[in-house]
Records
---
Amino acid sequence: MRPLRYWLQLAFTLVVCAFLVVPIVMSILAGVTTNYFVGIKSGLTLKWVLQVWELYSETIWRSIWIALACLACTIVLGIPAAYSLAKVQNRWTRLIEEFLTLPIAVPGLATALGLILLYGGWRDFRASWLFILVGHVLFTLPFMVRSVLAVMMAIDLKTLEEAAASLGATFRERFLTVVLPNVKPGILAGSLMVVTLSMGEFNLTWMLHTPLTKTLPVGLADSYASMRLEIGSAYTLIFLVMIVPLLIALQWASARKT
Amino acid sequence: MDPIVRDRRRALLLAVPALAVFAAFWLLPMARLVVVGASGPDGAKAYLAIVTNANYFRSLVSTVTLSAGVSVATVAISLVAGLFLQRNRFPGRKALVSLMTLPLAFPGVVVGFMVILLAGRQGLIGEVTSHILDEKLVFAYGMAGLFMGYLYFSIPRVILTIMASVEKLDPALEEAARSLGASTWQVTRDVILPALMPAIISSGAICFATSMGAFGTAFTLATQINVLPLTIYNEFTNYANFSMAASLSIVLGLITWAALAAARSLAGAGVAAAG
């Protein structure tokens, strides 16, 4: 027999869970309901989803493209940076780590304003999707670095590398064939994090986008403000279909990492 | 040259590309922001406007109050739920944890929409209350709506942190306290909570910093309350007052950064905001 305290805590936890999950379910239902004001009895339909696809499919492709480009950038920049932070630990590398985390310690709005004030006059850059990419890379890089660094600190990198070096492996060979394969779980978890965050990024992107470079979250804000509730919901539904598998994979990957 | 020294030097060089990107696209833009912030009619005094100008000060006070309130509430809720989820084993527990961490990466705009679905003009709460109380309860577009939205995006993150640190607690300490006759409440107050303090401080600080800078939720709710990020956005886009937007965002950035730095020196662990 469990004590009363147990049941109270269970009830409380279930209420919190309901608070988090009920609106998700409502938004999914609203996206496939013929008329939300009438309710489910008005029938289920895919017409809103199709309408969203017609209106906004461009933003969906752009978000996927930017997320993948962002992933490529954070891999190329982040893994080497994590390696140097793991390998050399002194005042300077702590400062580097601190630096790289600043874009997530300071609100995205500030970063975006700075980017616009400094580079906004460079028209071609301002109008291209690369302008958004820059913001996303700044914002996601710390997550890649931290995820990879955590694995590097947990494994005995030093012994592995010494063994390889004693067999004649060069610095480059060691990095590519010993370090990288051993930190794969960190790279995987970091990559999922980067893609998930980039797909959902709004604070920076809202400032950095132009009418021709709208991303999915920007389109969402647009539809919430100017379209009927069913369309906003159907659009949210599409976003959830894209982001939820990533989140589940992320939970699985971070469980495996530790 | 000594191979170890050479290795270290090469390893350090690998941080150069990331640092170069950081310098070009974050450090320089921030420096520019600081300069623009002081370029308005009031010069460097613009940095004091947040306390001298009644409008900005009101915006600052309501943002800080909201963020602090959300942080305290989130940590309290997550402590109860997190302790329960980590300490008890029951069927469906894993699924429950997954569900509760699902909103982890929802952008602020989506969270705002969730609040509208719950407490907006056609929301669930309004629907239910109009049946029970004969009065439609709609509070999405004010302080209560913002509070709800900020709770929504904060709880999943804080619960994860709390659960991770509950897992690391040493059960021997609790057993010792219990064997000395301490009640469940005493064990919670004198053993569990102090041991969780670093996690409480760091997750509370992350929650505070994230709430201070949150923009999407308030933007979607088109709220009557001008939280600081909305004030900055309005200065920039609606009034084209670039220097004021710049100085306000520098001040906001300093506040969030300082909150995180203070929490880190108190709690010791890696603390950084997200979202």
Note: Chain A has a mean pLDDT of 93.
---
Amino acid sequence: MIIVKDLWKTFKLSRQQKKEKGTKHRDGKIHAVAGINFTCQPGRIFTLLGPNGAGKTTTLRMIATLLKPTSGSISLDGIDIRKQPQDARRKLGFLTGTTKLYDRLTPNELVKYYADLHDMDRNLFKKRRDELFALLDMHEFAGWRIGKLSTGMRQKVSIVRTIIHDPEIVVFDEPTVGLDVITSKNIIELIRKCKQEGKTVIFSTHIMGEVSLLSDDMAIIHNGKLCYKGTYRDFQNQMQRDSLEEEFIRLLREGQT
Amino acid sequence: MKKIMTIFKKELIDSIRDRRTLITMVVVPLLLFPILIGISSKIMISQARKAREKTLRIGLMTYNNAREFRESLLGREDVAVIDHIDAELGQQLIKKDSLDAFILFEKDFDKRVGDMLTGRITLYFKATEEREIEKRRVLTLLNDFERELRSSRFDKLNLDLSIIETIDVDEQNLATPKERLAEVIGGFLPYLFIIFCFMGAMYPAIDLAAGEKERGTLETLLTSPVGRFQILLGKFGVVVLTGILSAAISMLGMYVGIRQVKEIPPELLNMILSILEFDSIILLISLLLPLTIFFAAILLSLSFFAKSFKEAQSIISPMMIVVIIPAFIGLMPGIRLTPTTALIPVLNVSLATKGIIADTIVPGMLIEVYLSLIVYAALSIVVCSKIFTREGTIFRF
């Protein structure tokens, strides 16, 4: 379970950024995330929806312990990420659409590397690797250098890298960005599989189609603040517009005013 | 420790598989010395042979003086004399490289010499390094001539030549062969080893920090249950290892290079090989190790700070000059290892290496060099770890 309470992330702007942002940020600070609260339950998929620059990635990076919150708290299965970041990371799998892999390693080596970093038992690792490689049909290219793999093959390697240690919480940051339909489908299936296994899943997107395909719970974030929080079903029931896209835009406009 | 080793092993495999790292770490240091020593020594030897064996082209204007000298010149097989040319033409021919030297006697040369006065000879030549041997050959001819004149003058006066030798300086050079060699190449070798250390560490540092940041792989690495300092140490180990290996490979390259030149006199060869003795190499590497740690920390700090591989390259490339300058100062004659210079990084290693090669290193100075290097290395690691743990550096916004 992920519990996010009154989460803030403030960045100091550089001189150049202050010039670019103009008078809007006179104090030289920008609140990328401004006091958000939400809970992600195990066995459910939580979608963080928002336009570019809304604060999705910053929020997920804080959950993944990459960024320290300015204030507020995040707990992963009862572990405070500020106090025990390494313990929190043991429970985490993190995948982004922009993440690349080590081109000079083979899928075998890469997966072993991450398993070692997670202190996985050797036999358990072999069993899990073989299962995942079989599931994703990866045995053929498991010994090839990653640099020589196609985008689809690489994405499969990324998936295995993310879940090799069987994390209880999986964070997906816009995982399908720039991917073709077939590769995106693999990711969608992975997210569903994680849900079926009872994992806590949070994923960010700005693609409405993915929201309707996957979401159990959702939040809409804009300018670092949540404009909506609830179940996807409630969202559909409360819609004041005909389509998801139009309702999303309406909520963003409301949020701005 | 286990996780540091996991990261170290992975980074090492990743670096070794990188062609660019292999070129800077292995190929260049291994081949540079053999090529440099092989080609340069062959060119130098053949140039010197040519200069010694070539027929000297000497312009001469004696105004009918020094007949014996003129005849002896004309009689020589290794000299082609162009006789009776005036001063202006002689100088022009020198400038055009048509003559190696032009010897101009003053008109009353014989008379002045006969009157026990000084006869003037003007020698025109082009003083360049490549013409040094030709110049020396002409001077030898003139010195022989002077000796003959002096001898006949002393005979006339019934004097012994020893009368003008008021003192006899017997030069006894007590410098050991190693010291003499250190004077010649002692500054040059550490200069190269330091440069290779830096070069060998540079590319992996950029790749393992800025490269990983740019590729986005650092982000996933940071979400694994590994402390940032452990990640840093794993990467650090590889950067230091590649720097040291690069310097060690350059020593091997030097050994191979020297062995392939047959013209090196055995005495000199033995002297050079004595530098490459096991003890000396261990001492040199022990000096280079803290320096490489210092380099690695600086390189990694700058690489982590850079947004991309390219930016890291453009920040780090000028650093090469910062390394070269103190290493170059160490090449200069008269610069010695003192309590002050022992505190200047790079220069202290350069001077200490010179001392090790010459076998003249003072243990106290060496300890000061080690201590200062260890302090610099420790400080640079602290700075590097501060930079690496700052989220503003890793996710530069």
Note: Residues 46 and 217 of chain A are 5 Å apart (CA to CA).
